[in-house]
Design a protein that fits this description.
Shape of chain B: globular
Number of strands of chain B: 14
Strand content of chain B: 15-25%
CATH topology of the largest domain in chain B: Rossmann fold
Strand order of the largest sheet of chain C: 1-2
Order of helices and strands of chain C: HHHHHEHHHHEHHHHH
Largest sheet of chain B: 8 strands, mixed
Oligomer: heterotrimer
Radius of gyration of chain B: 21 Å
Number of domains of chain B: 2
Distance between the termini of chain C: 9 Å
Number of helices of chain B: 14
Largest sheet of chain C: 2 strands, antiparallel
Chains: A mainly alpha, B alpha/beta, C mainly alpha
Order of helices and strands of chain B: HEHEEHEHHEHEHEHEHEHEHEHHHEEE
Helix content of chain B: 25-40%
Number of strands of chain C: 2
Chain lengths: 307, 390, 335
Amino acid sequence: MNWILLFEQFLNGFQLGILLFLLAAGLTLVFGIMDLINLAHGSLYMMGAYFMATFVGWTDSFMLAALLTLPACLLLGVVVEVVTLRRLYDRDHLDQVLATFGLILFFDEFVRLIWGPAGLDVPLPDFLETSFEILPGVPYPTYRLAIILTGLLIALFLYILVTKTRIGMRIRAGASNREMIGALGINIQMLFTLVFGLGAVLAGFAGLMAAPIFTVEIGMGANILILAFVVIVIGGIGSIRGAFIASLVVGIIDTIGRSFLPDLLDLFLDEVAASTAAPAISSMMTYILMAVILTFRPQGLFPPRGA
Amino acid sequence: MKLKLIGMASALALLASPAIAQDSVKIGFVTTLTTGAGVIGKDMRNAVELALDHIGHEMAGKKVEVIYEDDGFKPEIGKQKTEKLVKKDKVDFVAGYIWSHVLLASRNVPLKNKTFLISSNAGPSPLAGKLCHKDFFSTSWQNDQTPMAMGEVLNQRGIKNLYIMAPNYAAGKNMVAGVKRTFKGNITGQDMTKFPAQLDFSAELAKVRAAKPDALFVFYPGKHGAQFMKQYSQAGLKDQVPLYTVFTVDSISLPRLKDLAEGSLMTQFWAPDLDNAANKKFVADFKAKNGTYPSFYAAQSYDTIMLIKSAVEAVSGDLGNRAGIRAAMRQANFDSIRGKYSYGNNHFPIQNFYLRQVVKDSEGKFTTKIVSTVYENHQDTYAKDCKMSW
Amino acid sequence: MTLSLRTIVPAAVLVLLGLVPVIAGAIDEPFYIDLFSRMLILAIGASSLNLLLGYGGMVSFGHAVYLGIGAYVVGIFSFHSVEDGIEWMASGYVQIPAALIASAVFGLIIGAISLRTRGVYFIMITLAFAQMVYFLGVGIEYYGADDGLTLYGRSEFGDWLDLNESSTLYYVCFVALLLTLFVSYKLINSRFGIAIRSIKSNERRTRAIGIPSYRYRLTCFVIAATICGFAGALLANRTDFVSPDMMHWTRSGDLIIMVVLGGMGTLFGPLLGTVGFLLVEEILSSYTEYWQLFFGPLLILIVIFGKGGIDGLIQALANLVERKPKAAAQSRDGA
């Protein structure tokens, strides 16, 4: 066993998990509080990446572009909420799935119309383009370390926001009993728009962080969205803590599986069959994990109290 | 506009569709116009349009009509669109096909309905071997050939230990098989990544570093190429493990990759600087019209139209003379952008393969130049499994 | 039952569908037979999903998996019949029952576990199982993995029924659709169907009157899976090709759209929804490459304003024409 490789893969998995968390946090908040299944969350992630790419083109500065992207995402989130989603809160989940699926189609085509099918790139500033020697002889991309750090900071911020502030109190109250919080005279409409905006910002932030690593392209949100849903279901819908832990677990399982399964399978299968089966099995593991957890804990690992 | 017209035509066809006398040459062109890979399809379409301009939209005095269809990157949709072209539009030729799996799924439709099928890119091994067909032609290459040429290059450069990465689909497996066939050293590791979903290669790149090979061979077509190149560079591997690619860095990704790809090596049957009259005209006019260098996808698509033209003219526009058209296509009697080539018994080109390197041209645009010729008149290895002879 | 618009429209659609090969033959456009046979097959799939969504209140987000299982059984049998020379495996009399059994077994396993959860968790766990089977398909190199399998030949039923003839295949699909509608009708209006519907509207009460809701729901789940597996077997024959793509989650999403678009919990809704969905897709996409730009908002509008889907629309129209506001109050269930 190569311990250095294991460590590096662990870090890679951790980084993927952090990215997942940024996406899942917004999703679980919106889901938990408004009881809204928002498939278009992945589109907000995509829009974040496209905004970032555009602003980097305009300003030529990574940091400035990031600062512009966040309010843009907030605005977009609020517009989407006011124009469409607001009408869906009291509908059943099926209607929500359908309408937000419609939003996905719309955003994908919209992006293709405005930015073209080619996809864009977000170049990194020089100080992030480097690699950092985490262990002797093992350079790790600085930018991926930056993702991990910012992700942890955001997790901390959300934790404080949710547990220590008045807004957070309302959010928690909303997650465990929606009718009650309305009865207590809190402006639900406002709170919902706010939470959705926050979710959009988080999604957009995930998008802008992912942009330099992945190509900014149409449909970039779809695959990671499904993973984010898996994460929030495993973690328990509405639970930020659950989303955080589940994100890391899923990220690490996926990465470790991908990197070590082929060698393991080589022992049983011929090389071609093994290299085909390995990525498939590692993808399956995430879903198996979810099925097992739901079988024994039908409400996820950390169901919000009162639900 | 054209699309809209076709759309209206097909909507009208719902109501009534009288048989029209065959006064035009109809070509169906299946490629990917949507999804992230749509940019490849666009490049191919540009090349087809350029070819049509060059021939004045006429073959043997007949008007040429090209109908583009989008396969959405999915075998099933590709097959459905092929069905529409063959059975509804009743085209004379179906061409295009970027992806091996789309081509494999679609091939039966034209071949069972007496329509010629021409691949402008994909070259999966079954079609060159066991499943070769009298009505199927390729204007590109068999998948294994280009990586085989790369294997030779690796041998020449004294590489002993090689790590291989490729996406897990028909073409990816062919590429891996190809490089393994000629490479004489030791394979220290191999990763087949999910396709097209996987875009993060950090786990695989970490394994490459740990394996400490002399070189890394990859095949990542389309957007995956740009993706891979960026992550390879960010992981700091550029100075540790030299990279050898096939179909990964192309004219579509180069304007975005820029110096990330400078100096990188690849093998190919064609290059923009290949010295022949047809190619010079093609590259110059393509650049003038679209502002970028044509990709190899574009080159192959251009040749597709020219091949069809040569065959239609050989039978003086008599599209019913299928035997005549087939015989003419087998001659490949036209000025190909790769220079003169011939067809093997399986209807795949027997052609040269070159080593190309990414350089900056005089205007500061990134392109490639030919370093050396790796193979001369190379035929794919599956031709012997093809029972066809002529 | 009086002759209302709500029965006339589906009946007209069915008659038209029945005439497709005749019309296509008359205007010499055999392509339409292939186009519409796909529509019939997906309508069968959508109808089976409707049993879960519309009548059982079980939102399965992984229903396309049975489409894939049915298709793969046909594909794999055809593969072995040629590669290993096992002739009986090419027979449709073997392939179709095997496809039904396989999808029933998968339905039983998936349902047994999934039905322990509720609401969103149910949606997600059905999705999870579908993804597992999807990746299973992607992972098996022997059966083509990502690239799928091309069928060597369609299911063989002897000389009297040659599926290679596209109008024969079409009528097989047509009869299968009629059969599906008939079975659904019988099922919904049976004691079992009433129990399922009452579980949907109030599970606790239904249990209280002594109906074992879990077992009833599971039975319904397995029936729906089996019918969808049948559609899958037909789909493999129509497409001559199977691939993991057939069970991708977006395909499950498409099925849901068809059901809701047509009108959930109505006998003919899924049929109308499938016809509507595929026609809109076909027509919009022939006008513009950017058709989804219009289809997306259309979907949202339908969800927000068009309660009850196409069926609901027809209902509203009928009320307008017949000026019988009472009809609106009639139960949507049954037909």
